Amino acid sequence: MNSELNLRPLAIALAAALTLAAATVIVVAAGLPAYAAEAAMPAAVPVAERTWMDTSLSADRRAELALKAMTQKEKLSWVLGWFGSDFGDKKRNPAALPFSAGYIPGTPRLGLPALFETDAGLGVASQATKTPRERTSLPSGLATAATWDRELAYNGGAMIGAEARASGFNVMLAGGVNLLREPRNGRNFEYAGEDPLLAATMVAQQIKGIQSNHVIATMKHFAVNDQETGRFILDARIGDAENRMSDLLAFQMVLEQSDPGSVMCAYNRLNGAYACESDYLLNQVLKKDWGYKGYVMSDWGAVHSTVAAANNGLDQESAWEFDKTAYFGVALEEAVANGHVPQARLDNMVFRILRAMFDKGVVDHPVAEGGAIDFAAHAVVSRTDAEEGMVLLKNAGGVLPLKAGAKKIVVIGAHADVGVLAGGGSSLVYPVGGSAVTGIGPASWPGPVVYHPSSPLKAIQARAPGASVVYHDGVDAAAAARAAADADVVLVFAQQWTGESVDAASLSLPDNQDALIVAVAKANPKTVVVLETGGPVLMPWLGQSAAVLQAWYAGTGGGEAIARVLFGEVNPSGRLPATFPVSASQLPRPVLDGDPKDESKRFTVDYHEGAAVGYKWFDLKGLKPLFPFGHGLSYTQFAYSGLAASQKDGKLQLRFKVTNTGAVKGKDVPQLYVAPQGAKWEAPKRLAGWDKVELAPGESREVSVTVDPRLLAMYDSGSKSWRIAKGSYKVQLARSAADADAASINLTLEARTFKP
């Protein structure tokens, strides 16, 4: 025992010396601070004297003790991150895990491990395609949000967090909660929809699942990073109160519900200042008003200064190679030395990082590569998420679920013979077994286009052994129509690939797929459309199709999941987390701001809709969408009754009963909306709560929902408080945001001011 204690510090010191020696060449070549390459470090602190390793102490106290034991140069090493892959002429730090998102050297002599960072919200992603890690991919973030199922979101987060740990990572850059203000946004598929309550609740559960593995999760991109066109230069303009009731409310709720160890500031400007040097965002809102105790890391390439960024709240520069220079390298060292950045500020930056590491178990549960991964079990987690998130948008004549006895089924388009589409960019999880289709899309990042090798065609064939199930690629619309003419049912798979750094050119399906669907539906009225898209799309063919299933990007088990829903093995229970417009003319910005071909000019995006995002905008303007927020059909029916309200300790509680009045087992998502009768809100009503319930035929269940008081209030910037106006409010128990038959009651609320 004693010999082990004596040898361990020596081993740690030796490992540190070897790592530093290996880094010397890179450091000198890059012009980074000399401390990053110094071999002559203070002696390792004996294990018995490492008071910060006492797990009975609070995370705050442990961070204080560890910080006190550090040299200045060790402190500075914690605030500068490296990319985990070669980038241009810059070589990765040899200690970083190859093809990873990032690396921050630890302090081995103090027993503090390095931080190994991985993208992203759908699983463990690789930052190169020549030797990618093959891991399990969740369906898109919108698909998970469409489940409206808290437990599923947690389970998915726990699964990808486990794969991150098994892969040697202790920081996961997952927790995207940017609201869907712009349906053409290329990253919408990573996020959780347009409503702050729904988005925050689902993302918070995913973060809790990730962090259950002693892995730090990252809430991002803070804030109002709502389109990709011009993302490095655009200036998002929105008022404080409007922001606090929409985008910022989503972030605030995520913090309260999940306490992520880190927050990633965004690329864009907000009201003039870059997000990563915004005193308003980082110091005033995040750290002061919300009391956030974790650390703020930059997005990759989002840092533009040293002094302003450090003093205004940025704690760690991520992957310095993406920035013009290492702003938190020599420049920060000099800024602290000459007083432009106070020593207390540097200490706080490091303290926050250390506190998160202790608080989330990163120090006490060190990671290592090569952990076991149960890919079969994880595939089931992903497939279940995909099944629950699929939204049955239309089902004329009960064409779905597919009936037994079909003689011929024709499957058309979207490479449905071999796999399901994935979104592009940093969140892309390379599939086990490789992409089912190669050579498509951008040759470089955010491409190439990847298909998870889960074949819808094979899954359909397995469930229709007596039928002729044939595939047509759909390239020739006329030929596809001829092949479909005599089928008992036709399944047209349509797709729209989106990815980070590029917004969709329009909301229309690309590559003449609208014409394909029209031609096939004209030839055979029993045409079912399965949509694999990153967000809302237009459907000029909706009236001609028999059914539409929104499958999103369905992840590792997507093909199997689609077949299980089509054949009724799974009763669809997904509900839309975003409004589908009839046309772009219904949007607050019918034309996307900025020029995707010219990022040399700064421009502003005026979010004049304020907090009226998504369905709230449609309500405010009296617009009828193609499909409303919250919409989704089932293979059974549900009835609501007994809506009642009570108030206790300033909290509004709503109760009601749900009954399955149909013939098969299913899950329903009853939604509660609140509308003021006298007071003026940003929009006529807000989502106030929901539940997801599974019921057998004839079964009923009582449901109770507690309403967050902020959803009944307006934010007042002057007093930094929320104010509920005295008066009458209508509560609606509905199937969607546009449910004309919603049950309702009226209640009276007393005036109240509070600061949660």
TrEMBL record:
Keywords: Hydrolase
Domain (Fibronectin type III-like): residue spans on this chain: 668-737
Molecular function via GO: hydrolase activity, hydrolyzing O-glycosyl compounds
InterPro entries per UniProt: Cellulose_deg_GH3, Fn3-like, GH, Glyco_hydro_3_C, Glyco_hydro_3_C_sf, Glyco_hydro_3_N, Glyco_hydro_3_N_sf, Ig-like_fold
GO biological process: carbohydrate metabolic process
Pfam families membership: Fn3-like, Glyco_hydro_3, Glyco_hydro_3_C
Presence of the UniProt keyword Hydrolase in the record: yes
Gene3D superfamilies per record: Glycoside hydrolase family 3 C-terminal domain (3.40.50.1700), Glycoside hydrolase, family 3, N-terminal domain (3.20.20.300), Immunoglobulins (2.60.40.10)
Family: Belongs to the glycosyl hydrolase 3 family.
PANTHER family attached to this UniProt entry: BETA-GLUCOSIDASE
Protein name as catalogued: Glycosyl hydrolase
